[in-house]
Specification:
By secondary structure, this protein is of the alpha/beta class. The protein is built from 13 helices and 15 strands. It has two domains: 121 residues, Aspartate Aminotransferase, domain 1, CATH 3.90.1150.10; 227 residues, Aspartate Aminotransferase, domain 2, CATH 3.40.640.10.
Amino acid sequence: MVDPFLPDTEKIAAIRAMLPATGAGIYLDALTAGPFPAETARALAEADEWELRVGRVGAGREEDVAQREDEARAVLAALVMGDPSEVVVTHGVGEAHTQLALSLVPGIGGRWVQVTGGDPCAAAAVRGVAVAHGAVVVEVAPDDATELLGSEEGLVVLPHVDERSGAVLPVAQLARRAHGAGALVLLDASASAGALTIDPQALEVDAVAFPAHRWLLGPEGAGALWRRWNDPGMVDGWTLQERLDRLPRRSLLGLARSLGWLEMYVGLGWAHARTLDLARGLAAALTDIDGVALLTPIDRMAGIVTFRIDGWTAEDAIEELGRRVFAIIGSVEVEGEPALRASLGCWNTEEELTRFTGAVSELAAYTPATIPRRPSLVVLHERRIESYGAEGEDVP
């Protein structure tokens, strides 16, 4: 456990000890998946061993799984400052979007606006449901969203953070415009849940969807949907809950344990503030490097820093950075061109980011053809090879 009253230096060390993957390299790809807590892994191992011994059926099994779901909904509700009755646990963010779209009442506006920059899976899910509703989906760039909202919208899907540039969108402003057009607003918090505070009341949104495996450090294949329970534009919330298959007991347990650890022992407010401070520091350091173009606006950012290095493709830069400082980062297309994307979290250290920016500076001073190469790390696994020669001896 992490003592919440520890000084920051000791607290960060304790957090990293609970996230072993942070020692394998500079972990800068939370948008793909965050590191997994050791405490969660232990709880899941115990659950697996118990099911192996006693099976997955028996008296009290249904009540036990229902309790695990209630625990998961409670920690998810705390994340969005809501009530557990307003939270539906889903099989990922795509299903959360699908179920929200399916819950819209018949006759709702036939034009749905999808502001780009959110989770691609979630966007595809909404487009699929729109066909069944007889609605037309219009994709709008974040900068054009305000101007293109009209009076026929039934649903507006807004990303909290643009996953490409890392920019935080003016959600409340766009939501007010959408409500003025008579539309419901679904917030895609795929790139903000666990990295930014999510307050649906302040953001003026009607629903929030997000996955569990990124900054929330939960298992893959899990997510959640928060929605106003009695919104007249949606079917009854209990109907939505009842038509979903319940997540496996193991996923519910892992979700509750990881997010509970974040909320109770790390502290979401502390994690949000540290993530933002580190991201701003990294962005500022990158702007000071000649040959580096920062694509993320420092004045409205979250936990994502997107940039390019002159003369380097994203693929070559990722390979070289991995070779030099074991940096684990991602790539993304911004305005049709590949870019590097670092998505960091409260587990990162200032020392790591200093080493990372130092390596970026080295790359910016060279090209792939001129940079002094460093050898890649090769991990060899011990094995024995049978020799079928005359002696038939094993060769180590």
